[in-house]
Design brief:
The structure is a single chain. This protein has a single domain, classed as Alpha-D-Glucose-1,6-Bisphosphate, Chain A, domain 4. Helix content is 28%, strand content 36%. A 7-stranded antiparallel β-sheet has the order 1-7-6-5-4-3-2. A hairpin with a 6-residue loop joins strand 4 and strand 5. Helix 1 crosses helix 4. The termini are far apart.
């Protein structure tokens, strides 16, 4: 079926910066609009990013805008090893995550993923088909956006 979705989107990048520095960037939800080409604005309820924290996003595609709500579902700082930060988007049930792994040279391998452990909500599937250009086109945009996000985080971390 041409309008099915991919269960996993994933990309990684090597960053010449310690995991703690990269962690401080990926967990700064209000600054995600600086890195993600789809995010216009994010606001964390209560201001503190931690396990269970909730936030609102305003996303974009061209001139189209739509709100989403997220909740931090994994928050494991990279103390002496691997770290992971993940949030679930209420409207479509997707889980977005950043995994940080130390590299042999003291840098960090950063992996961004979009997973669909509970599938994607029917409302989101219909809206993607009708408003956002269909699953394949939207998935291609997401894949490009993940790469752009990783490259922008790398540039910031290495500056």
């Amino acid at each position: 079926m041409a309008d099915t979705y991919e269960k996993l989107l994933e990309d990684s990048i090597e960053i010449a910066a310690p995991a703690e520095k990269v962690w401080s960037l990926v967990t700064d939800i209000p600054k995600m609009s600086k890195w993600s080409p789809q995010v216009v604005k994010s606001t964390v309820k209560g201001g503190e990013v931690r396990l269970g924290a909730t936030f609102s996003n305003l996303n974009k595609q061209g001139i189209k805008r739509w709100p989403t709500a997220g909740k931090v579902v994994r928050f494991t700082p990279p103390v002496g090893g691997t770290g992971e930060f993940a949030f679930k988007i209420r409207e479509n049930r997707t889980v977005w995550s950043f995994q940080l792994e130390p590299t042999a040279d003291g840098g960090t391998r950063l992996t961004e993923r979009r997973e669909t452990p509970q599938g994607i909500s029917n409302v989101s599937l219909v809206l993607t088909k009708v408003v956002l250009g269909g699953q394949q086109g939207f998935t291609d945009e997401l894949r490009k956006g993940i790469r752009q996000t990783l490259e922008r985080i790398k540039a910031e971390a290495e500056a």
